[in-house]
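New to this. Help decode the following:
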Amino acid sequence: MLRFAPSPTGDMHIGNLRVAILNYLVSQQKNDQFLIRMEDTNTQRIIEGKDTEIMMLLEKFALKHDSVFHQSEHLNLYQILALRLLKEKKAFICTCKNEELEETQPYSGHCENLNTEDYDQLKASGEKFVIRIKKPEDNNEIDSFIIVNTDGLPTYNFACAADDMMSNIDFIIRDEKYLDDTPKQMYIKNLLGYENETQYFHLPSIIDKDEISVKWLFQEGFIPDAILNYLILLGNTEAPKEVFTLPEAIEWFDLNSILKSTAKFDMAKLRFINREHLKLMDDKQLSTLFSFADADIGKLAKLYLEECSTVNELKERITSIFTPKDFDTEWGEEMQLISDIIFQAPEYKSFDELTQHIINESGLKNEKLINPLRRLLTGTGTGPELSEIYPLIKSYLLEVAS
């Protein structure tokens, strides 16, 4: 079984999403289960609603899970396991001074004689204490680290190891920043009697990942398929092509093809991939991003993909077409004249027929025709050929030319 274990303490960043995607990919390849675990025992840092937001984001990327739970549901289980280690003399109570009760501080070795006999008495007295794991005799790299804090809550490593054991997680893909935690978690599971082998794969970090949230990418107009495509491609040396879907990636993805060095987030590359996925999108579906349900509007948006690469940029172009035009401009007089002619004209199937009618009625030619006509139909002075745009907006012509 594989798992994704986010902490609902802030926005999901691309590094977290990458871990979720790769765990899901491998679970699909192994035909194994994929579990979501909310690591919410650090109550001081939890932000209400972030767990729901994380689940909604995973749904947007079609990362289906088999089960989900919060670590806060298991607090009694952590207590039971910690007491078991105390009874088996694999852990001990520590009442060192406050500065020594921090998980990151080295342990002085003063309290190893305290054990389960002192547990109830200390709890009743209100004196602060922690529970520490006994240092392995054959491993100088692991200290007598804390597994239960003074508030009775488990430390990250203890809760993580206990849940991986109870869920029988046998393949863990996570960021390399957790590399130093791995020996501690393996040691905890060993003391708890867990004998099943667990494979670990630590992903090289993404430079600047903490500055880029998934929510921000959505706000900037990047679509899920493109973000997913980019994160699978990042650092991958054997991807058969640059643009692909999640089902395609499941067929060929190989963890061992990811470079061991850190990867830098490349916005230009993401923009390219986003543009390519917008091109692949169903025309009618694309139009819904601009509040339409019309394949022609989707085709219209795709005309602008030579100069645009995000939904926001396309929306700006589409909005400009359908926004009432300002006739108080350099070409305003000609625009008003052309608008009046269009409102009186029959419907023409081709752009050439329309322009010939405008020429006949107005006498405008060359730039005195094309410049105001472009601004009237698109709201800007540049863009795709009007002959390509016209067939896609002719059913809206009176609205566009108003």
Notes: The beta strands are 2-4, 34-38, 67-70, 91-94, 130-133, 146-148, 171-175, 199-203, 206-207, 263-264. DSSP finds 18 helices and ten strands in the chain. The longest strand covers residues 34-38.
